[in-house]
């Protein structure tokens, strides 16, 4: 290896390292940020809470969502809320010093309240996620049931996609 090739390899390794860091940082409650929270209190009207500075702001958006949780009288159904969404929102709330509603507190030694149904857990049927048959992304499971499936890329890219959509909507 000559000095030029070595320099090129080092630059490539640094770029790959930074890219992997950014992917992980977006999904960490210490370095990531909430851009939007989608809710569906009525099947006909999906509400999107914009948590950017153009909307409620991150703290304001999280507070608005927690108020919706507090006011909720029914069951909520979502995918992967017990593994990612609720832990991320709770941890971001801790970082931002936002109070978490009593409705999110444990019931009968369960961490997640009974009113929240996580479809990923239902799919797993109580089987540990290491079992090959209990695995499945939202896209894989939805398309397996003949639904269109998830559109878009990976979760760590949501912020970039959201900014692009917001920019196009303003143009």
Identify the notable features of this structure and list them briefly.
single chain, 171 residues, mainly alpha, two-stranded antiparallel sheet, two-stranded parallel ribbon, 4 strands
Characterization of the model:
- By secondary structure, the chain is mainly alpha-helical.
- It is 47% helix and 11% strand.
- It has 6 helices and 4 strands, in the order αββαβαβααα.
- The chain has helices at 3-26, 58-71, 81-96, 119-124, 138-144, 158-170, and strands spanning 36-42, 45-50, 76-78, 116-118.
- The strands form 2 sheets. The chain has a two-stranded antiparallel ribbon with strand order 1-2. A two-stranded parallel sheet has the order 3-4.
- The radius of gyration is 19 Å and the shape is globular.
Distance between the termini: 50 Å
Global morphology: globular
The percent range for helix content is 40-55%
The total of beta strands comes to 4
What is the spatial order of strands in the main beta sheet?
Answer: 1-2
Into which percentage range does the β-strand content fall?
5-15%
Give the count of helical stretches.
6
- Rg calc: 19 Å
In round numbers, the mean pLDDT is 77
Helix and strand sequence: HEEHEHEHHH
> Which stretches are low in confidence, meaning pLDDT under 50 for 5 or more residues running?
none
Profile the largest sheet: 2 strands, antiparallel
Structural class: mainly alpha
Question: TL;DR?
Answer:
The chain has helices at residues 3-26, 58-71, 81-96, 119-124, 138-144, 158-170, and strands spanning 36-42, 45-50, 76-78, 116-118.
């Amino acid at each position: 290896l000559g000095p030029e090739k070595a320099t090129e390899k080092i630059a490539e390794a640094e770029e790959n390292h930074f890219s992997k860091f950014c992917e992980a940082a977006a999904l960490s409650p210490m370095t990531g940020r909430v851009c939007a929270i989608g809710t569906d209190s009525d099947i006909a009207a999906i509400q999107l809470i914009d948590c950017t500075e153009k909307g409620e702001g991150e703290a304001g958006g999280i507070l608005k969502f927690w108020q919706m949780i507090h006011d909720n009288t029914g069951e909520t159904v979502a995918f992967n809320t017990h593994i990612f969404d609720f832990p991320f929102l709770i941890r971001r709330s801790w970082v931002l010093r936002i109070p978490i509603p009593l409705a999110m507190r444990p019931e009968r030694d369960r961490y997640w309240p009974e009113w929240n149904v996580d479809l990923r857990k239902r799919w797993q049927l109580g089987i540990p996620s290491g079992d090959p048959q209990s695995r499945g992304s939202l896209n894989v499971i939805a398309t397996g049931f003949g639904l269109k499936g998830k559109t878009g890329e990976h979760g760590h890219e949501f912020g970039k996609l959201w900014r692009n959509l917001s920019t196009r909507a303003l143009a």
